[in-house]
């Protein structure tokens, strides 16, 4: 029998969509299945945060996985209020993650399938999604509606990086190998690079941080696009090309909040960090070559170069888009409708939804905007509820 809702990907977006379907659209948790290649929800997110050595979120306390806007603040109570930093009340990572796992706990009546989606086909009253867990374990889930929440795509690896160069966002990243190195080097000066370098830096063994100066910005996309005015203007744009142009202008990939730039400066003054302002263009025999005269010796090079810019359509999804004639723009990004349906009953969130949700689509705020749209199209027994973003 078909399950009413299948969410592919149990990361921040998938978990928030599940929570929203229950809270906003009145869907019975038993009518939701989450499929993820990991054994438990949020595994990739929790791993990436640890790998990077992140201490505090970039986004404010209102951006979390529950539905009511004040949920994280209430969860923090008086004890944890001190763990909300600065004027944006950015939550400490452990507070954010405890709250996120609390939200995951509320999904215990949902079905969880561990497996990697490999194929999607239209079937009967919905879709048939094939998954694989190992060479001998595979299965098919029939679902009336499917939400694609498969994440931001693969880590971006520059052309010069050969074997032996790790990426901090890769699942097989070995942090200990870098922590134990004699002269570790981090390539990439955005927030992940800065957090990684600071978390590895020691007075007796400085870390080298290499890359052009990062532009300063509190957030990685213009917060105006979380509000009605900018979003309505964005959504009024007639074609994908003009929306793409706005997204590219409003996003600040590789940028650094000023407070982190100050932390880097202090670490450099203390001798814990060596800053090289140059672009790396080669790596050979333990030497990183750059576009300046500087060459940097390192026995452990780590990339902190973010995610690939191309649309995160995995091969099975690209194939489904072709077979089911689902619309994409010139770059292959989905063109869903206003409720984020790419096709009747097939919804997208995250970067897959960016041409409707706007510049914040990959972020937690983007998950909240996307879930509202998906739920607005549903009328469960409780009907859609309005909680604010
Ligand atoms: C270090 C770091 C810090 C960040 N900090 C912030 C922040 O402070 N604020 C903010 O708003 N954003 C932040 N972001 C950006 C963004 O919110 C995160 O990248 C977030 O994890 C995106 O959530 P997601 O669910 O789209 O992707 P993911 O967390 O990657 O989840 C996608 C899930 O889908 C699963 N999956 C993918 N393909 C398949 C498949 N074929 N079959 C089955 N399962 C599949 C994956 O295993 C994964 O579990 C940060 C990102 C990083 C890397």
Structure description:
This protein is α/β, with parallel strands linked by helices and 389 residues long. The chain has two domains: 3-154 and 308-376, FAD/NAD(P)-binding domain; 166-217 and 252-303, 3-Layer(bba) Sandwich (FAD/NAD(P)-binding domain), CATH 3.50.50.60. The protein has twelve helices and 18 strands. It is globular and about 60 Å long. It starts with a strand and ends in a 13-residue tail after the last helix. Bound molecules: flavin-adenine dinucleotide.
Write the layout of secondary structure elements.
Blueprint: E1 3-8, H1 12-23, E2 32-36, H2 43-52, H3 71-76, E3 84-85, E4 90-91, H4 93-105, E5 111-114, E6 116-123, E7 126-132, E8 138-148, E9 166-167, H5 175-179, E10 184-187, H6 191-200, E11 207-210, H7 228-236, H8 240-250, H9 258-269, E12 273-276, E13 280-284, E14 287-290, E15 295-297, E16 300-303, H10 315-323, E17 341-343, E18 346-348, H11 354-357, H12 364-376
Parallel strand pairs: 1-2, 1-8, 2-5, 8-18, 9-16, 10-11, 10-16, 11-12
Antiparallel strand pairs: 3-4, 6-7, 7-8, 13-14, 14-15, 17-18
Helix pairs in contact: 1-12, 6-9
The structure holds flavin-adenine dinucleotide.
Let me know the average pLDDT.
Answer: 94
CATH topology label of the largest domain:
FAD/NAD(P)-binding domain
Number of helical stretches of at least 4 residues: 12
- Shape type: globular
String of helices and strands: EHEHHEEHEEEEEHEHEHHHEEEEEHEEHH
Number of domains: 2
Low-confidence stretches: none
Radius of gyration: 21 Å
> What is the total tally of β strands?
18
The main pleated sheet reads as:
8 strands, mixed
């Amino acid at each position: 029998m078909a399950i009413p809702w299948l969410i592919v990907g149990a990361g921040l977006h998938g978990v928030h969509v599940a929570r929203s379907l229950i809270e906003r659209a009145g869907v019975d948790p038993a009518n939701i299945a989450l499929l993820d290649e990991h054994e438990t929800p949020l595994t990739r997110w929790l791993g990436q945060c640890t790998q990077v050595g992140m201490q505090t979120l970039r986004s404010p306390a209102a951006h979390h996985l529950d539905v009511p806007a004040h949920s994280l603040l209430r969860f923090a109570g008086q004890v944890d209020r001190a763990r909300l930093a600065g004027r944006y009340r950015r939550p400490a990572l452990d507070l954010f993650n405890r709250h996120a796992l609390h939200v995951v706990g509320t999904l215990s009546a949902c079905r969880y399938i561990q497996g990697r989606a490999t194929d999607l086909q239209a079937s009967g009253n919905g879709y048939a999604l094939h998954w694989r867990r190992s060479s001998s374990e595979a299965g098919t889930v029939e679902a009336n509606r499917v939400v694609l929440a498969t994440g931001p795509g693969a880590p971006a690896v520059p052309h010069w990086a050969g074997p032996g160069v790790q990426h901090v966002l890769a699942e097989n990243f070995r942090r200990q190998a870098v922590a134990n190195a004699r002269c570790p080097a981090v390539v990439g000066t955005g927030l992940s690079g800065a957090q990684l370098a600071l978390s590895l830096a020691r007075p007796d063994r400085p870390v080298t941080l290499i890359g052009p100066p990062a532009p300063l910005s509190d957030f990685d996309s213009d917060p105006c696009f979380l509000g009605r005015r900018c979003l309505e203007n964005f959504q009024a744009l007639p074609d994908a090309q003009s929306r793409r142009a706005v997204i590219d202008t409003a996003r600040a990939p590789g940028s650094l909040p000023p407070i982190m730039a100050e932390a880097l400066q202090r670490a450099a003054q203390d001798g814990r960090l060596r800053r090289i302002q140059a672009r790396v263009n080669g790596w050979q025999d333990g030497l990183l070559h750059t576009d300046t005269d500087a060459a940097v010796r390192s026995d452990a090079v780590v990339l902190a170069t973010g995610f690939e810019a191309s649309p995160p359509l995995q091969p099975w999804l690209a194939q489904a888009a072709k077979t089911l004639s689902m619309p994409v723009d010139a770059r292959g990004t989905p063109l869903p409708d206003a409720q984020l349906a790419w096709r009747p009953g097939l919804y997208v969130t995250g970067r897959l939804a960016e041409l409707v949700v706007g510049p914040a689509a990959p972020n937690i705020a983007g998950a909240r905007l996307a879930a509202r749209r998906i739920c607005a199209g549903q009328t469960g027994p409780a009907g859609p509820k309005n909680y604010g973003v």
